[in-house]
Task: structure prediction
Amino acid sequence: MEAANGERERVFDAFRHWGYLEADLDPLGFLHPVPHPELQVEGESAQEARSVYCSTVGVEFMHIPDPARRRWIQDRLEGAQPEVDQQRALELLIRAELFELVLQQRYLGTKRFSLEGVTALIPLVDEILEGAAQHGAVELVMGMSHRGRLNVITHVAKRAPEEVFAGFEDVDPRSVLGGGDVKYHMGATGEYVTRSGAKIHIHLVSNPSHLEAVDPVTVGRTRAKQDRAGEEGSRKFLPLLVHGDGAFAGQGVFAETLNLADIPAYSVGGTLHVIVNNLIGFTTVPQELHSSRFAAQLARRQSVPIFHVNAEDVDAVIRIGRLALEYRYRFGSDVVIDLIGYRRHGHSEVDDPTITQPLLYKAIQEHPRLWEIYAEDSGLDGAQAQADAIKAELEAAQKRAGSMRKKPSLRQLPAYWNNYQGGRYKPQYEVETAVPADELHRLGERLSAYPQGFHIHPKVKKLLEQRAEMAVGKRAVDYGMAEALAFASLVKNGTPVRLSGQDSRRGTFNQRHSVLLDIEDEQEYVPLEHISEGQAHCRIYNSTLSEAGVVGFEYGYSRDYPEALVLWEAQFGDFANVAQAIIDQFVVAGEAKWNLLSGLVLLLPHGYEGQGPEHSSARIERFLQLAAMDNIQVCQPSTAAQYFHLLRRQALRSWRKPLVVFTPKSMLRHPEASSPIEEFSSGAFLKVRPDPEVNDARRLLLCTGKIAHELRVERKRKKIPGIAIITVEQLYPFPESDITAELQRHSNARDIVWVQEEPANMGALNYMLPRLRHLAREKHVLSVKRSASPSPATGSAKAHDVEQKALLSLALSTNGH
Ligand SMILES: Cc1ncc(C[n+]2csc(CCOP(=O)(O)OP(=O)(O)O)c2C)c(N)n1
Ligand SMILES: [Mg+2]
Result:
């Protein structure tokens, strides 16, 4: 008996490991099962195991190290299967299919990215929502790309079909000139009523064409909503990402997002992933799309179960949906459902797929529609009559859409956005950012204190002693302390702060030390979390080694936490370009495309210090090129106090705009960049900093950042008179009146010179010159910069020094350049 049990276990184990390879997963049969040597066994056990593991479901779960999790999955797969409400499933299928059909008939020749071939997605999500409601979910936060999106807006977000059809009708082009987005990118919100009558809010996130870019944004948005809800957050807010098979396997940003899953700073208690796997990407077949057998296998890098399911076994699809949902709630883990079907039409409906896949499309053309197959298999009566009625309903909706005057909005913003504004800058948005001296004093005490008996690192001890002196005016305040004071003053008054970046807790340049570590037991103490009773949280995290994923996440977070100061810090500003798609598609264009605001702050260390091509430039030029219609703020504060006021201004104004800050490296502790405490208890962020030392100059040097300090040192050393050095601390929105005021203050100046460290094709030069020329009227506007170059900086520290000296001497020469 025992031997027989052992044998049975052994056979089952082989099928648990490899059964998915022989499973019947492709409705059209193009994906051939791969016979596995360990499965070529006879007998009753093998038959039983085969019926579980090689049916229309194939599960990859034996790579999960935790036996409890494997056991959980195994028990559910091998045990009795739950009943399915087939009547409901049939109706959902008919609705999903006929929705596409009506679009096809009424709007022939337009793109809609039909779901046909994988319409089982709709009953799948229905079941996920049913399960989620039973766990107390109040909202599904969903990110997806083009495929089936309109169907999801209608059948998951529950927008009335006419609202979606209206997107296909002509609009007055004047309403969207230069802005807006195509209909299959816009977000949508709605209410879903589950089978058992529970209501779940649906939030489909706006996304760009860039596949998978919405993944980290969706997860970040979910996390913000969860944080707002407190302890029950991850139960109440469920994230669901729907992927294409090509994109899932190919796009790195997805891999970056998956890697965030179990990290406390980014965890959302498990994200559900559904791959709408039509076994094709545009014209490309799976063998060209991924090196693994299944696109889904990218997820095997982690302990994430993968459920492959044949999209034409709708009952199995529904059961797997429920299983995946239960697994997420039980283990707080990500789960992947690989829903394998086909694509009935071309990539879009204007594409002819018979050119690239003639045999596949011959098979598809002869293949019946899923609702017809399901009606027959389930033996339910009246399907055709039901289909006729639904079609008539949809056609009536289409007629109503045609007579709609205005395109309806498909979404409603949450109330927490009510108090914030976007659009153009207005001076009335300005707020007081100075903090009274006695308050700074108190904050300084809290920031430099730690518990009795805490074994502090001697270097950190010294730093805290210095910080204590800074707060009481015994020592100039440096950047690190300026930032700590800004954060402390904000959290004390109820503004949460969230900062993440690579090595940000200590700070790449050893400047932050936001987390103190006991050197004997590595216990942590975070002074910023001990500022006062009832303060808001100050959360500073080391991020994964990712840019696109993490910036996307933090952008998403900022979208659902406008009251918080949300910051992402690049290790060096150079690396921000790895997140370029998130910056281009969301951060700078989100408002123009979707009317969605964000107050995200990007901290980008920038400065030419001889550290080579990739540790010098945060690409000021790129951000300036992306700036229009006051969509972002681009700033380079040149002193600690300026940084303090800038951060507070960002948090306290009701104007929500992304803020790009070029932050210092070597200047972090430079005395020139430190500020007296009085500059924190009075004043505000100056968009342009005048030169207090020179009146009525002959030559005006305008610049940003570090080079201004170097110019001042050099001017002093050489005792050069008559040259004023003015820093433009806010490049965008362009501070026209502040610059004009400086030009007027030095109205006798002959030369106006833009000075920058960056090569001529980089930095702010091409942005500043035309503007300065416009303001300077008939005066000469010259420039001093490095020669144009494909690479931002030299790799030689010595060459850098030579270049830098030449820049300074050219800028300070009075012979005109
Ligand atoms: C980052 C990115 N690269 C390329 C494209 C162009 N593109 C749009 S859809 C598509 C194929 C997508 O295939 P898949 O992920 O399988 O989704 P499907 O259309 O099959 O649902 C491509 C290459 C894109 N939108 N985004
Ligand atoms: Mg595909």
